[in-house]
Amino acid sequence: MNKIIRAVAGDGLIKISAIDGRELVERARKIHGTTPVTTAALGRTLCATSILGDMLKERNASLTVRINGGGPIGSIITVSDSDGNVRGYAQNPHIDLPKRSDGKLDVGTAVGKNGMLTVSRDLGLKEPYIGSTELVTGEIAEDFTAYFSESEQVGAACGLGVLVDTDLSVLAAGGFIVQLLPNAPDELINVLESNIKAAGPVTGILNGGTVETLTEKILHGLNPKILAEIPVEYKCYCSRERVFEAVSSIGLDDLRKISESEADTEVGCQFCDTKYSFSPREIAEMVDRIEQNAKAEII
User: Which of 104, 153, 156, 214 is buried most, with the most CB atoms less than 10 Å from its CB?
Assistant: First the structure.
């Protein structure tokens, strides 16, 4: 089961959210047919986005992460609700690259680092809260660490990982975001940094281990206390009505051309690949409604 563990340590001066996201990343891989390097890039982003979504205090809020570093993978877009349920896609899911010299997937080259990481929080207000930072490595975890420091002015460290099996399925996926309160003493920071280094790769712990084990390793010797365990999943909220509304925004000229065709128009959801079909008559009715609304506004 995918879940997020929330915990505190160091007399409340350290807080951590850690996720086991193997199943949700595997779900994304199956939906989008991603190659191993894209599975790793998208999976890391999904796990971080799920953690950030769970941090939202407002109910019915949502959070969107956009990453574009100029690499061949193109843009990565992920969205989480306030319960940490997440969905996402990569612009070019089928690109593949040789592994790095150390045998690891070359996520940094696939994503690139000539671009931005942007986090948009929709809290139900008129405008979303948007923060962004330049990409550091394109490896995702280091970029989220930089985001917290530069955009949120929060001392934080992020670890993310996705392990892909020889049959392309996901063996392990997850990560953590650990944050420090401003008055955390140097000795506490030193212990935390030492723990993160000693823990090694996230997937080395989660492959056969648990997210609780990951949390304990990061907070070793700091008197950790688990506060909550939150189940999360890959979850899309698309519907025929929502997709129909999206189609209505493409412009009247294009809609008229579609309405004049004899075949139905099929539109797929980018997040879950569900296909929705609309008849020429439905599109024609949409055109009539838009034109009537425009006339009413003029009057």
Answer: 214
Asked if CATH classification 3.50.50.60 holds for the domain at 240-298, the reply, yes or no, is: no
In which band, very low, low, confident or very high, does the pLDDT at 126 lie, cut at 50, 70 and 90?
Answer: confident
CATH of 3-231, one of 3.40.1670.10, 3.40.50.410, 3.55.30.10, 3.90.230.10: 3.55.30.10
Residue with tokens 């797929």: 268
> Could you tell me the pTM of the whole model?
0.91
Torsion angle of the four alpha carbons 62, 72, 40, 102, in this order, in degrees rounded to the nearest 10? -150
The per-residue pLDDT for range 137-154, each reduced to its tens digit, is 999 999 999 999 998 888
Q: For the chain, what is the mean pLDDT?
A: 92
Entry field: residues in the chain: 299
192-211, pLDDT tens digit by residue? 999 999 999 999 999 989 99
Domain borders along the chain are 3-231, 240-298
* The predicted structure's pLDDT at residue 294: 65
